[in-house]
């Protein structure tokens, strides 16, 4: 029985993206010969319930960053493989963890870091220059780079129905992550008051502290519908029924692109910036910039531009379909990681 530990953190400030990425990866790798241990700080109850349904173990720690505690868990549970999705681990701490296990797999979105690991996964869209930079920094690691290694939700792939013939924008989706610590959602809904002929579908995550404020602001607005804490399945259905989307540069951006939805992105974290700039240069997304520089008038102007410029919309739609299509599924990622894990 292979024992696999997944190290990550989840909070209002960080959001739930690391949980979902680890959860989806565990589902991809899951079989009867493997046991999974999710090692994190205190998780939301709905996250714990999801782990229980899948019969994944959950171990709560005060701090993921405390290597002595992680070492104790690895030894006690006899964990063979550790997967980290935690940006605060530096190369020295990763090297220490690597000593305790047969295989260390690191998931990280930054381009300029060294990782003392066996396998490094960065499934963002990136240029060859960025890939070469990563290779130079990590010459002894197996590198799984680019969107072909995107960690999909398996339900997402089976239910995906891309409509590449969308012509007019009638529906706009917005989601700024599970927690949205900078409150981009409220900024967005204050930007859309005069677009009465557009239907807006706004998703709010469970750990978004501004949910009640958002809900109260929109309660009398007939063309704005607020969704709260939806499953991935329901989120996919909503995304597919919208022609245009707004959101941050996290995991949901890639899901929106795979759903075939033209995407406007706002950077809400440093690790998102390189991928967003690359996607923008490739003209796959419309990038509004850093959240501190994006205001209500800019969002209004962006929506008006899309409504009045069908060429812009059609161009992004074609690019989205070209680069994010069904050939990128989880099978390649599963095969590569299975080969590595099984060779221990």
Explain what this protein looks like in three dimensions.
The protein is an alpha/beta fold and 344 residues long. The chain is 40% helix and 20% strand.
List the helices and strands and how they pair.
Blueprint: E1 2-8, H1 17-29, E2 34-40, H2 45-53, E3 57-60, H3 67-77, E4 81-85, H4 91-100, E5 103-107, E6 119-122, H5 128-137, E7 142-145, H6 154-159, E8 171-175, H7 184-189, E9 199-204, H8 211-218, E10 224-228, H9 232-240, E11 244-248, H10 251-258, E12 262-267, H11 273-281, E13 286-290, H12 296-308, H13 310-323, H14 331-342
Parallel strand pairs: 1-2, 1-4, 2-3, 4-5, 5-6, 6-7, 8-9, 8-11, 9-10, 11-12, 12-13
Helix pairs in contact: 3-4
Count the strands? 13
- Across the major sheet, the strand order is 3-2-1-4-5-6-7
Large-scale geometry: globular
What proportion of the residues is helical, as a percent range?
A: 40-55%
* Helical segment count: 14
Average pLDDT rating: 91
Q: How would a crystallographer describe the biggest sheet? A: 7 strands, parallel
Strand pairing plus helix content: what structural class?
A: alpha/beta
Features:
14 helices, 13 strands, 7-stranded parallel sheet, alpha/beta, 344 residues
Summarize the structure.
The chain has 344 residues and is an alpha/beta fold.
């Amino acid at each position: 029985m292979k024992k696999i530990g997944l190290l990550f953190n989840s909070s209002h400030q960080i959001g739930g993206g690391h949980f979902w990425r680890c959860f989806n990866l565990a589902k991809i790798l899951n079989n009867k010969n493997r046991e999974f241990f999710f090692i994190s700080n205190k998780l939301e109850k709905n996250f714990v319930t999801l782990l229980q349904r899948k019969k994944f173990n959950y171990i709560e720690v005060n701090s993921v960053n405390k290597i002595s505690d992680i070492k104790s868990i690895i030894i006690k549970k006899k964990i063979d493989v550790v997967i980290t999705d935690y940006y605060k681990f530096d190369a020295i701490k990763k090297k220490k963890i690597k000593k305790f296990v047969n295989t260390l797999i690191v998931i990280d979105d930054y381009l300029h870091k060294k990782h003392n690991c066996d396998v490094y996964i960065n499934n963002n869209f990136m240029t060859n220059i960025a890939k070469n930079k990563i290779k130079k920094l990590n010459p002894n690691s197996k590198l799984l780079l680019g969107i072909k290694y995107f960690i999909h939700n398996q339900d997402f792939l089976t239910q995906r129905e891309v409509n590449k013939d969308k012509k007019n924008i009638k529906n706009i989706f917005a989601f700024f992550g599970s927690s949205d610590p900078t409150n981009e959602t409220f900024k967005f809904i204050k930007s859309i008051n005069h677009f009465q002929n557009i239907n807006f579908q706004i998703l709010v995550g469970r750990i978004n502290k501004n949910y009640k404020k958002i809900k109260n602001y929109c309660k009398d607005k007939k063309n704005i519908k607020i969704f709260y804490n939806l499953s991935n399945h329901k989120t996919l259905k909503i995304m597919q029924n919208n022609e245009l989307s707004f959101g941050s540069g996290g995991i949901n951006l890639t899901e929106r692109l795979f759903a075939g939805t033209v995407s406007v992105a706002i950077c809400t974290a440093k690790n998102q910036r390189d991928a967003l700039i690359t996607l923008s240069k490739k003209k796959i997304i419309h990038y509004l910039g850093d959240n501190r520089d994006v205001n209500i008038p800019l969002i209004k102007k962006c929506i008006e531009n899309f409504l009045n410029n069908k060429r812009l919309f059609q161009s992004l739609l074609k690019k989205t379909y070209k680069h994010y299509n069904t050939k990128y599924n989880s099978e390649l990622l599963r095969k590569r990681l299975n080969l590595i894990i099984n060779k221990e």
